[in-house]
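Dear colleague,

Following up on yesterday's call, I've attached the two folding results inline so they're easy to grep. Please treat them as preliminary; we haven't cross-checked anything against experimental data yet. The first protein's sequence and structure tokens come first.
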Amino acid sequence: MILLLAGSILTFVIARDATIVTPHPKNEVYYRQKYNSGPNHLEDFVKVEPLSVIKNRDVVHQAYDYSCGSAALTTILRYYLGRNLDERQVMEGLLHYGESQRIIQRRAFSLLDMKRLVGALGYPSGGFRATIDDLKELDHPAIAPIHYAGFKHFVVIRAVKGDRIFIADPSLGNISFTLHEFAGKWDQNVLFIVFPGSSKPINALELKEEDMRFIDSQTLSALTYRQFPEFNEAREWSIQNELERQKNNPDGTVENTRKQLIYRR
């Protein structure tokens, strides 16, 4: 009897310890995902990240209006080749190895400046004229000049998947275009590729599952003009707020009692 009781207590302790769940860090949101139904279902917690985190992951944002080139190159060096450099260091390197006087005059970096810097760092590189079909066969990230929103701009082409091209933009973060849209923005069909040489790239710029979650232009346009219904709670608050405002009317139609406006912070 004593052995049976001891075994039951031991079983209870083991089961209790097995069910202890380490609390999630603060300011992180997790979604409970069930994989099957029934009394013995399996479940897991999936971390939910803000769109701003996903959009800006593994992209070096330009510090200045004219520094898209240095930011694009820093993105390649850090997230493809694994070099722990920031944009300021890359800018200083471009000024040192590039055509410094011309850089100052045009307030921008050129692909030639980039080639000289990465050569000094020990990486082979090259500029190429390419076609849309060539982009589909890319096996390295590439820097491309584009015309966008009335400006000349450098972006990093991560990959092409289906009819979309996925880009790390130093200004906008991770975005995508259809190939047709990109063809209209691509400046002279130029690509600049930095090759890893004998070192193995870390390739954090490789496409991930969340990169595929885009909304096509047609759906986005439809949602723009869609009128979403009001939630009951919001409507109730709106009515209450209007009644409170009426208490300020000088005609005395609404009793001027205590006012309480409801709003969401």
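Below is the second protein, in the same order (sequence, then structure):
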Amino acid sequence: MVQTELAAIFKALADPTRLAVVERLSIGPASATELARPFEMALPSFMQHLAVLEAAGIVTSHKAGRTRTFQLAPGALGTATTWLGTHRNHWHRRLDQLDQLLTEPPPEPSPEPSPEPQPDPEQEPR
């Protein structure tokens, strides 16, 4: 269940239009018309973006007369925040390992043993 919810949140936020809407709603509630204003698309197309955000639980809406107002849902991004937090430590450790690998000088190669001297074929054995 959490993975499905998490996938829906990240999928909804992956679209630049929807991400911009979430950023705008972080300031405060706004009508659908106000949210659509900066985008060059028809209102019905824009409403589909809002529907995706609402289905993912990121925003809620209420209608008063002919105006539908949207706002961020309380704790909307909590699932994503928790997931990111649990994985942050792992990513930091891996990046630290990579940093160490890239910044440390390579180990000195061990000297190869010298070959054993070969007898000179022109010298007589003693």
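For the second protein, one point worth flagging: The mean pLDDT is 87.

Best wishes,
A.L.
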